[in-house]
Amino acid sequence: MLSQNVIRILIGISAGTLMMTTVPAAVRQKNAADAAVNQIRDVLDRQVQAWNRRDLEGFMEGYWHSPELTFYSGGTVVSGWEQTLARYRNRYQSEGKEMGHLEFSAVKIELLGPSAAFVRGRFYLKMASAESSGVFTLTFKKLAGGWKIIHDHTSTG
Amino acid sequence: MLSQNVIRILIGISAGTLMMTTVPAAVRQKNAADAAVNQIRDVLDRQVQAWNRRDLEGFMEGYWHSPELTFYSGGTVVSGWEQTLARYRNRYQSEGKEMGHLEFSAVKIELLGPSAAFVRGRFYLKMASAESSGVFTLTFKKLAGGWKIIHDHTSTG
Question: What pTM does this model have?
Answer without folding.
Answer: 0.84
